[in-house]
Structures are given as C-alpha cells and as structure tokens.
Amino acid sequence: MPELPDVELFRRSFEKTALDREIKSISAEKSMLEGISETDLEKAFAGKKFSSAIRHGKHMFGGTGESGPWMVIHFGMTGFLVYLQTDQQPPKHCRMLATFADGGKLAFDCRRKLGRIRLAADIKNFVRDMDLGPDALDEKLDFEEFERRLAGTRGAVKSALMNQSVISGLGNIYTDEILFHAGIHPRRKLADISKSEMETLYRTMHRVLAAAIEAGAEPERMPANFLIRNRQPQAPCPNCGSPVEKIAVSGRNGYCCPVCQK
DNA sequence: ACATTGACCTGAGAGC
DNA sequence: TGCTCTCAGGTCAATG
Question: What sign for the dihedral angle of Cα A14, A70, A79, A55?
Fold first, then answer.
C-alpha cells in the first residue's frame, strides 16, 4: 500500500488524531524496531505529546517539538496507521500501539512486518544517512533538478523513478501510473528520453500524485482513466481499450499499455 | 553500473 | 468448505 500518497494520508490522519495529546504509554514489537529498544521508544515518547508530523518520501516522522528524537515510521508493503477509540480493539496485525492519556490509541498495523520504526535526532541527517533523494513533491525539486537527478542513472526509466536515492516516494504502483499517463514505456532508457518527454514526466508525476492523494489513495475513487483501476493482465487500457500488459522491470511486476506507451 | 534473484515476513485471495 | 499455492504497493544483499 504505502507509497507517497498513502504515507501522506497517514501523516494527515496522524496530524488529526495524535497531536497535542499526552502519550500515556507506547509499545512495539521488537522485530519492528531498527536500532532501538522498546525502552528507547518509551523513554522518547511516554509522557510527551506529538506536536508535528512530517513526511519525506515513504517515511513519516512524528516529533514532540522538544529536543527529543523523531519517531520515524516506514510502512513496508503492508503497513498503515489506524486510530482507535477507547473501546476499540487493536487491529489484527498491530505492531506498535501508542495509548493517549485522555483515551484513544494510535496503532501501526503491519501484516508482513516489513515496516520499521526508528528514532532520528534530525530529519535532514536521517535523509542523508539513509541516502534518500528529495521528496517527489518537494518544491525544491524543480524540473532542472528532476532532470539532473534522473540523468545520473542508466537503467530503465521505471527503475530510476523507483530508486529512493534518486527521488523519494514513488513505488511500483505510482511509477506505472505516471509512466502510463506520460505515454512512456517503463523499459525505456533515460538516455532515449527527450527533453519534452522529461517535462511531461515531471508534470505527470505531480498530477498523478495529487490526484491519488485527492482520491484518498483509493483506486476506485481515482479518475476513470487511471491504470491503477485495471492492474490485471488483459484488462482494457483505460485510454485505448487494448489489453494492458504485465511486464517485469528490475524484478518488479508492473503493468503498461504497449499501444499508448512508447 | 545495472539487472536479477532471493531473503526478509505473513496471510489474503485464487484456484482446485 | 477447506486445502494448497501464488503473490504482494518495499528494501537489501549477493550474484551474474
């Protein structure tokens, strides 16, 4: 689930439900914690209040505004946040649970345990240490920077877009979607992509991500011409009606329309 | 430098 | 209904 639009929506729901409320207790499954213990997590947040939530690519940062560390959540493939009223039970694959003093809980559900919770003293340093590129929606990522960063790669355009150290936030689903609307085949090499195609790609990236967030990242709420609604072999291309094709690019299964995408 | 594969983990959903 | 099997929106390391 969690690519940039999903994580942005988690961040917003975190903002709505978890800020400015005293955290009574916090617990997490050991295997979800990276580089920290459960005690570290408690020390950092029990008795405190979250005061802000920031997103960079697929990472979400919850901070207390004091000098304490940020809680960094990466959602893996199956992670999501869910807010629970006082009388609600934690979800089935709850891996982290923060209980607020005034009732209610915030749960991190992660079925496949591929997500991670870390602590970071500073977001900028974290981004640098994890070798993450700029967030795909960062205003500072202007077209020139976008072009420059992609030009530094030699593989398929889809692989470059999915590479988090080039640009942060795009995964298998949304690279497919962006390339579909840009009319570019996922296997094309960067070197073969013209300046005007590159501009289209940049513009399309913004448009697709904005539309996905707008639709709550739910495929059925996205515009009818979105490929995400037809991610299965032989489904009709929403643009031309010819069957979409399932293709693997750098080890990931994706979909494209061989007619619309050149 | 890049692609590919397997590992990490688990269970939802498809197929029988 | 129940069993087995495949596959999954992420990332990393090892290999070719």
Answer: positive
Q: Output the CA angle A158-A164-A209, nearest 5 degrees.
A: 70
Residue A2 bears catalytic tag? yes
Q: How many CB atoms lie within 10 A of CB A26?
A: 23
Pairing type for strands A79-84 and A105-110 reads: antiparallel
Could you write out the DSSP letters of every residue in A5-26?
Answer: HHHHHHHHHHHHHHBT-BEEEE
Residue A71 and residue A38 in contact, taking contact as beta carbons nearer than 8 Å? no
Query: Which of helix, strand or coil describes residue A138?
Result: coil
Query: CA separation (Å) from A100 to A26, A85, A200, A213?
Result: 9, 10, 46, 28
State whether residue A81 is helix, strand or coil.
strand
**Measured from the CB, is A3 under 7 Å from any atom of strand C?**
yes
- How far apart are alpha carbons A222 and A218 in whole angstroms? 7
- A51-98 confidence digits (pLDDT tens): 999 999 999 999 999 898 999 999 999 999 999 999 999 999 999 999
Among residues A11, A58, A187, A231, the one annotated as catalytic is: A58
- pTM above 0.90? yes
Q: Which amino acid is at A5?
A: P
Nearest protein residue, CA measured to C1' of B12: A111
3-class SS of residue A143: helix
